[in-house]
Amino acid sequence: MDVFQKCFDFQDADRVRAAGVYPYFRQISSAQEPVVVMDGREVIMLGSNNYLGLANHPEVKAAAAAALERYGTGTAGSRFLNGTMDLHVELEERLAAFLGREAAVTFSTGFQVNLGSIACLLGRGDVAFLDNLDHACIIDGSRLGFGRTVKYAHNDLEDLESRLKQFENKGKLIVTDGVFSMEGDLAPLPGLVELKKRYGARLFVDDAHAIGVFGEHGRGTPEHFGVEEDVDLVMGTFSKSLAAVGGYIAGERKVIDWIKHTARSLIFSASQPPALAAAVIKALEIIEREPERRQRLWENTEYMKREFTSLGFDTGDSASPVVPLVVGEDMTAFQATAMLQQAGVFANPVISPAVPPGRAMIRTSYMATHTREHLDRALEAFAAVGRELGIVR
């Protein structure tokens, strides 16, 4: 048996390409702004996680450029050995202070945060309890640990409690997204905190899509729900609101110290380029001084939810700037994505197994820098495509 045979047998992408609606690896030749350039034409971007519009901010770019000039393009080593720059330490201190935590440590990607942190926290005999819609990096991190992985039904506190009861004498780690990246709904953190306390578990929140977006100060879903002191670990990424690439985890100093010395994805990976660390430091500064960006983001989000509902679209349980439109079958999602792009709108298809069969979606997401003109032009395209495909009447 040839180990490559599965590759030669793979036909799914070819079938979608043959239908002329292949939606992946699309090329963009401009910055992540409300309007991007694709194939020489302008397209309204409703598929980016650049929530606060900082990815092309002149101050962020200037900070990155200054660090590039001083430190060069890379670190040529891991954080563990020669790759820790003073900018990395400054960023970690700034993040810990911003989040109100004792300490933080940064990784080169957000995926690596969960891969390394969850794996090194789960010893033999420990159990990780994962929401059924948790991000892939949470699942992979749990699989890499020496503990056991138990999944519970999405946001179902009763199902989680029934599973916690089965492992009363084990070390327990509940891991959940704060904002679920496809559906855009929120984890029920107050209920999770209650169960954590009742069963002696620890609570780990992946707040990748909430940092800078939720809470009075932008500290994410724990601040939004008023449970910051009861969430043991909070992680986030720099590739959404924080305008760069990388990730962090924050919590008690001793726990972060353990992660720094045992997380393999940190120890054995080259560290984040200093220019990116400088960009995130500047992005944090802007988030703190310009809360109006968050306000504009929510105004845009609420406007689009109202308008989509008025048009007859099903936006599910979204409670965030991620607003999905349920379209039904996978091929319908591919067709809608292609038609929207032709009409001048970039959006993302979400198909099974990321969602249940028959619940394919078009995932839209919003920026503080979208104007009402951008949004209204996009709505016209969605209305036309929705009617043509029979998604709305």
Task: Write a structural description.
There is one protein chain. The chain has 393 residues and is α/β, with parallel strands linked by helices. The chain folds into 2 domains: 11-45 and 291-388, Alpha-Beta Complex (Aspartate Aminotransferase, domain 1); 58-289, Type I PLP-dependent aspartate aminotransferase-like (Major domain) (Aspartate Aminotransferase, domain 2, 3-Layer(aba) Sandwich), CATH 3.40.640.10. The chain is 42% helix and 16% strand. The chain is built from 15 helices and 13 strands. The chain has a 7-stranded mixed sheet, sandwiched between helices. Strands 1-2-11 form a 3-stranded mixed sheet. The chain has a 3-stranded antiparallel sheet with strand order 10-13-12, covered by helices on one side. Helix 8 links the parallel strand 6 and strand 7. Helix 4 runs parallel beside helix 12 (274-289). The longest helix has 20 residues, at 292-311. The protein is globular, with a radius of gyration of 21 Å. The termini are far apart.
